[in-house]
UniProtKB/TrEMBL annotation:
Gene Ontology MF: a single term: metal ion binding
Keyword Oxidoreductase: no
Gene3D superfamilies: Cytochrome c-like domain (1.10.760.10)
Native source organism of the sequence: Thiocapsa marina 5811
Residue ranges occupied by any Cytochrome c domain in the UniProt entry: 36-117, 132-214
Name of the protein: Cytochrome c class I
Amino acid sequence: MSSPFLRALAFSLAFSGTLAVTPSVFASTSDTDLEPDLDHGQRLHRQCALCHGQYSQGILGGKYPRLAGLPDYYLMKSLTDYRDGTREHAAMTVVGGLRTLSDNDLASLSAYIASIDLDAVHPLDVPTPEGADVENGEDIYKSDCKTCHGRSAEGNKRKESPKLAGQYDGYLFRQIEKFKAGKRMHANDPEDETFVDYNDQDILDIIGFVTTIDDKSDDKN
């Protein structure tokens, strides 16, 4: 039997399907000199697919997060940070080959990943973590998180905040722990103390609520 790596490689190289493109996918780069190319972005994505999956759907449990459908402005910033060494992750720079990519490469890759409509090609059922008080999480989210991440956790370009809806709880937990430990900077503010006053249950509740937002989206429209 071939190794998991070789199976993933063959799987990603075989993928050449056409995906739905979000109409606003180029909005964040329209005022720059970058010219995203979705076909080029799809070719570059073959390396990302080795860890994040054929559709960038991530892995249940959040070892590798969902990337599909994240805003292109956020993907572009994150990929640039990894390429330039502001953020470090060997898989991103070695397997993904980010060190050798130009700004236009990153713009094309970001635009392609942002264009992937998982509801159409690979629907996800993101579980709510056991023990979460979703109602308390909703109250905290609407009080402290909505301004930056949006009413439906869709992200906010002006604040460079990512979409949270549809993300795996395990990945969100790990990032919050990094924020608390000072290993990642939250809200582009090195002195940010957003999570200082939250106990473990509060964080569980917030994440629990976020995992339900996609489930409720049809009811909110």
